[in-house]
C-alpha cells in the first residue's frame, strides 16, 4: 500500500484550489460536500466559479496562485490543465507547508482523491493507486446501486439510538435489528415520511424485535421488465435482494431470477398469455398465504405490472387479507420492442397517440375498437397478438385498414435472441405462420423498423411537412 487511506478533519480549515476551468470545477463538486473553507485562485475563472463565489460557497481570488497562498491550508489542488503551471503552483504550495495534489499526476502528488460513495456520515473511499480507474468506477457504481440513498440519514439518526438498542442481547439479535433498520425500515420510512419518521420507526422496530414478534408480511408487485436484467429498476433489484419469497411469471427471464436472495423461495406461477398453469385464484392465495406468515413476497411480473397482468385482482386479494402491498413499475414490452427496432412509440407528424391493446382476453381473441385502429396513422402495441394474428388482420381489414400498413412483430424484445419481423397488415398472418416463434411476441402495428422506413409507402407520412394541414 503506497497510499494510506485516512479521513481528514477539514471542518473550518482551508482547502485551496488553483485553476479556473473544468478540472477545477470537477474537484470543487466533491470538495463542496465538505465543511472546509474553500479558496479558488484563477486569473480567468469560468462563469460557474464566479457563480459559486457569488453564492458564498467559495472564496474566489481572481489572479494566479502566488507565494503564501497556501499558508495554513490543509490541502492544495493544482488543477490548471497546464503541466508547467501546476508544477509552479505545487512548488510554491509545498514551500508553504501544504499537502499538494496535482490533478492527474499521481507521481508528483502528496495525496490522491479517492472515488467516493457518499452516504454522509457513511463515506466509502475507493482507491486503486492509479492502477485501474475503471475498476474504481465500477466498484463505485456497484455500491451506489446497492446502498439505499437513505443510508446516511438513517445512520445519523441510528447513532443516537445505539444506547437504546443495547436492550437487545449482543450478537445476532442486535445485528438483525440494525440490518432490519438500515435495509428495510429506514429506506421505507424515509421514502414515505422523510427523516422525521425515523425516530418513531426505530422505537417501533426495537419493540418488535424485543417482543420477537414475527415480522409483518408484505407483497410488492414488481415489474421485471422485458427480459434484459439491466432493464430492471434499482428498486426491483433491491427488493429481489431482500425477498423471502419470489412468485414469478414464466416470462421472467432466468438472468433476473438469479438476482433473488440465495435463501429465497422461488415459485413459478407459470402464467403466460395463454392457458395459465396456475389459476389466478391460486396465485392470489399463494401470495396471501406467504404474506400472512410474515414473509416479504415479491410478486414478479414480466414487463410492467400494470399492463395486462391482472394487477387489480392481486391487489384486491391482498387488501381483503389486510396485507401491505406496493407497486413497482417496470419497462413494458412495447418500450423494449420499439427500442429494438430503433423507433419511437410516438412521433410528431406520425402518431400523437399510442394504443396499448391485447390480442387475447379471458374469453379468447379480444374485440377492440377496430374502426379506430384501422384509421391511417394509428400506432398500436398489440400484446399477446401473435396467435391471433389472422383474427386481428381480418378485423382490421374489414374496418378499412390499408393492407400496406406496416406491422413489426418483435420476439424476445431486449433479450440476446431478440428478432424483429417486418411485414404489412395484408401479409401479417401469412408471415407469422411461416415463422417459428417460441418466445413472447409483441406486434407493433403502424411501425416498421427504422431501417425500413425509407421504403415506406403512404399513408404513413414520415415528415411533419406532409401533414402540415392537420397541425395548422
Ligand atoms: N406486463 C407485461 C405484458 C404481459 S402480457 C408488459 O408490460 O410487458 C404478455 C405479453 O407481453 C406477451 O404475450 C407479449 O406480447 C408481450 N411481451 C412480454 N415480454 C416480451 C418481450 N420480451 N418481447 C416481446 N413481447 C413481450
From TrEMBL:
Domain spans labelled Tetrapyrrole methylase: 221-429
Pathway(s) the chain acts in: Porphyrin-containing compound metabolism; siroheme biosynthesis; sirohydrochlorin from precorrin-2: step 1/1; Porphyrin-containing compound metabolism; siroheme biosynthesis; precorrin-2 from uroporphyrinogen III: step 1/1
GO MF annotations in UniProt: NAD binding; precorrin-2 dehydrogenase activity; sirohydrochlorin ferrochelatase activity; uroporphyrin-III C-methyltransferase activity
Presence of the UniProt keyword Electron transport in the record: no
GO biological process: cobalamin biosynthetic process; methylation; siroheme biosynthetic process
Matches recorded under SUPFAM superfamilies: NAD(P)-binding Rossmann-fold domains (SSF51735), Siroheme synthase middle domains-like (SSF75615), Tetrapyrrole methylase (SSF53790)
InterPro entries: 4pyrrol_Mease, 4pyrrol_Methylase_sf, 4pyrrole_Mease_sub1, 4pyrrole_Mease_sub2, CobA/CysG_C, NAD(P)-bd_dom_sf, Siro_Cobalamin_biosynth, Sirohaem_synth
Alphabetic keyword roster: Cobalamin biosynthesis, Lyase, Methyltransferase, Multifunctional enzyme, NAD, Oxidoreductase, Porphyrin biosynthesis, S-adenosyl-L-methionine, Transferase
Family: Belongs to the precorrin methyltransferase family.
Designated name of the protein: Siroheme synthase
Organism of this sequence: Roseicyclus marinus
